[in-house]
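Practice set, problem 2.
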Amino acid sequence: MKKANALACAALLLAALLALGSLAHARDAEAAEAITLDFNASVVSTLPPGFSSPVTGGGGPASWMVVEDFTAPSGGKALAQTSTDKTSFRFPLCVYDRFTAPDVTVSVSFKPVSGTVDQAAGLVARYRDKDNYYVVRANALENNVRLYKVERGNRKQFAGGNVKVPSGEWQTLALEVKGTHFRVLFNDALLLEADDATFKNAGKVGLWTKADSVTYFDDLRVKTDATR
């Protein structure tokens, strides 16, 4: 009798351990899940669902919309910032409101189309509001990539590198944020690394431009170990 009870207890313990292992595996798979946003299912001339379009600085409102572009990496559509307001200290944002995380890898394909004040394409992470976030941006007029923190509406660079950013061509930009460490990749090659501890908590991700930059974006990808 005692032997039978012991075997039954052992079987129950084994089942519990297997169940916990399966649950942990499921959680790990969920935590590693990546989000990819292309815009082929979105309606042309509209802002895709789940996005908002605030502006840091002055000038007029941003104009983000889906446009047709058959050169886009994912197919025939892209998300574009189309306003040509030349206000220099004006940064149109397109924030993805359905995602929040502290540590994140976010990447995008982008194409600078036009702009005389600027031709910029940026990625935002740990976004709190329109005046507080991190942004990395590539500039086709200056041929460089810069990493900034925007704190209380003031932009301060804490890393940067020079690289050819051709106008009218699709290229990729990626930002990895883990703890206080930042890595920036341009066309899948590591360009720069830096550290900053201004914003440590979870925030949203998004896209960014400057002044009169008309820029197209596609394949916005987000991956994190703390998807929430």
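Problem 2, part (b): a different protein.
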Amino acid sequence: MRPSLSSRAGFAAAVDRQLSIPLRVMSVTGAPGLLHYYWDMRFLTLLTLGAAAGLALGSPAQAQETGTPVFSAPYRAFAHHELGLSLSAPEGSDLGGEGFFSFASGRNDFGLRVGALDAGEGSDLVLGGRFRSRLITHSKDFPLDGALTVGLGAVFYDGDTVFRTPIGLSLGRRFDSSASGMSFVPYLQPVLIPTFSEGDSSLDFALGLGLDIRLARHVDLRVSGSVGDLEGFAVSFAWVR
């Protein structure tokens, strides 16, 4: 017997209370609803992946608090904490590598990042932190969920230091696949990035595009890219709990 929408909603609400992660419940009663659901999910997923791939092929990279193009979905993927690795190709560097750790606090979460940018003749140290807070829950009037993000980071190179304090709004929606157990979160994140260095300052703008994919119960794959003043591409892997 097919479960009713109310029973599915009750189950999602119970999971949400345990994980503090809002889940989307979609009515897929009947063939038209099911086809519409999978069309939406595949279209948004392919669109986000295509846009991010285009950014990777066509643009050099700079970006948020640590100078790498890593952006944030409006949802946290973990109930307690996560640990992961981000790889990118920032402008002026052959490769960027960062380890990150994030932890939950009510509806908010905090993240810390540390890594290095390989500049060929040497490596630049990067440090950063991020705060995210859910502000918007989707409704009939507005179809997306949203979160405020605020960061602070620094890049240390050649005796100089560049500080960034990005402020952004992440907007997206989760699509769950009950058949595979996977979930997909395509999102966009406009960001204002005040940047400071010795004797200089600027205000940059970037539009981040991303896709978070839950591959397994404790494993996430995340891709992101951006256009605007700061452009680039990044891939992250996370172990979530």
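Answer key, part (b): The helical segments are 5-19, 30-58. The chain has one domain: 5-240.
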